[in-house]
Amino acid sequence: MAVKKMILDLDTGVDDALALAYALATPDADLIGIVSSYGNTLVDTAAENSLKLLELLDASDVPVFLGESHSSTTDDFATMEISMAIHGRNGIGEVELPKAARPVEAKHAVDFIIEAAHEYGEDLIIVPTGPLTNLALAMQKDPSIADLIGNITLMGGALVVPGNVTAYTEANINQDPQAADYVFKHAKHLVMVGLDVTLQTLLTKKETQVWRDLGSKKGQIFADIFDYYIDAYDRLDINHDGAALHDPLAVGVAVDPKLVTLLGINMQVTHEDGRTIGDPERLRDTHKTNFAAVEVDVPGYLERFMNYMNIVLSD
Length: 315
Hints:
Elements: E1 4-10, H1 14-25, E2 29-36, H2 43-56, E3 64-66, H3 81-87, H4 109-120, E4 124-128, H5 133-141, E5 151-155, H6 171-175, H7 177-186, E6 190-193, H8 195-198, E7 202-203, H9 205-213, H10 217-235, E8 243-244, H11 246-255, E9 260-264, E10 267-269, E11 276-278, E12 290-296, H12 298-312
Parallel strand pairs: 1-2, 1-4, 2-3, 4-5, 5-6, 6-12
Antiparallel strand pairs: 7-8, 9-12, 10-11
GO molecular function, one term: purine nucleosidase activity
Domain Inosine/uridine-preferring nucleoside hydrolase: 6-302
InterPro entries: Inosine/uridine_hydrolase_dom, IUNH, Ribo_hydro-like
């Protein structure tokens, strides 16, 4: 069986950094590229962060592509103050990394997604951990790829728990509800790894100390990055017990959906605020194209996560 090819669509903040590391470490997929988005930070900063992290992790062969800088219904984007408080103004916990030795690719992220869909088809996994603007635009530019992409596993949404922007709305989906709605309704196979499960997977300074104890530069830097996130969760009264592994859980589920319990439910995204909810027009359709993660094997996932991180962060 062919190894799955993975594209990450990152608005590279703190948990995106961990998702990137997980994607490099898992033996179940080959990371073929990163497309950059806006959200936790500006798209240019997200791309630069990805380049820096790939260099740190000895993965400079993975290309980075610049994506859309704002939502499909706006003309610009400004990072929210709460995002900067959680991720730092540079997106990676105020940790300063050397400027990347290489630039982003000349090709636009949307064109890279389209080409990869035609090349890899069913073997392609796309993992968006920010807004779905890039993916929606790619599917609109070349509608045939909706039936080619084997697996879209995204971090976003909230089905049975409150949102983190409004009472119902999660931040990534809220950034571009129209794009999210399009992707949910047109994807062949979409798994939503939302707040329902990501808020259950917490990391603490006990785990980041393990990275420090590796005695590597990589371990030290990633511990510094995530400790900023943990401190922000505590300071902002988000969670005093640790910080959620939002984006890395999506990568984990993308390659091993058995980590979660999936509810088959064809969904829509409300354009007004980005609520992820059942689509009345498709609810009775026996063929499900959308699946929402509603339970997660927390001990199993955390053990695997730490094993992979210890591998990728060791010198």
